[in-house]
């Protein structure tokens, strides 16, 4: 099967399979705070790490279907230059999903999702209590991606990680243990996965 983007219906595919083919995708549970002090929390699955020295993570924000045209998280990041990545674990799957619900810009989404905050050390936005990992980030660069047929564009945000918190109960012999964290991953459509098992492959050396 071959088709050009946007023409999946002609192949008998009821939904665009693009995101269902790029998997599993880590989830960026992003907490931010507006200049007026209102906290926002939302999950994004266009996310990954792009550098470790310095540590840089990237998050993709699709256009907001509401009248404002820009997601609250993106607005806060562009306005203040700060945000926090919170790792989503199996235990917080329901709260993460609840935080994806659109709410008014002036409503605290921690409260709407029934979550407690933890103070950050180097940035203003709070962290999600109970998340096994937090990255405190400062905005490095934002990039408007090509516009879609409706003239709307997604935005890619690159953030420099300036502080890292790790729950020590998720370490084994000083190494991060994914089976203790049980992080969630996004698949296509409404599907998710959880990491319960890992295996190792040692990278071969030249020659």
TrEMBL record:
Signal peptide: none annotated. Residues 20-173 form the Flavin reductase like domain. InterPro entries: Flavin_Rdtase-like_dom (IPR002563), Split_barrel_FMN-bd (IPR012349). It holds the Pfam family Flavin_Reduct. SMART domains: Flavin_Reduct. This is Flavin reductase family protein. It comes from Kiloniella laminariae.
């Amino acid at each position: 099967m071959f088709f050009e983007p946007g023409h999946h219906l002609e192949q008998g595919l009821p939904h665009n399979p693009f995101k269902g083919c790029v998997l599993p995708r880590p989830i960026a549970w992003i907490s931010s705070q507006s200049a007026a002090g209102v906290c926002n929390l939302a999950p994004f699955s266009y996310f990954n790490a792009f550098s470790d020295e310095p540590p840089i993570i990237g998050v993709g924000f699709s256009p907001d279907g509401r009248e404002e045209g820009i997601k609250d998280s993106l607005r806060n990041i562009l306005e203040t230059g700060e945000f926090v990545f919170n790792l989503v674990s199996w235990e917080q799957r329901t709260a993460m999903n609840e935080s994806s619900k659109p709410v008014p810009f002036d409503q605290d989404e921690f409260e709407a999702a029934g979550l407690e905050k933890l103070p950050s050390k180097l940035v203003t936005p709070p962290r999600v209590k109970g998340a096994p990992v937090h990255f405190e980030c400062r905005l490095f660069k934002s990039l408007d991606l090509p516009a879609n047929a409706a003239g709307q564009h997604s935005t890619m945000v690159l953030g420099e990680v300036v502080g890292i918190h790790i729950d020590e109960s998720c370490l084994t012999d000083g190494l991060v243990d994914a089976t203790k964290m049980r992080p969630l991953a996004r698949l296509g459509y409404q599907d998710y996965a959880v990491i319960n098992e890992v295996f190792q492959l040692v990278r071969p050396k030249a020659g």
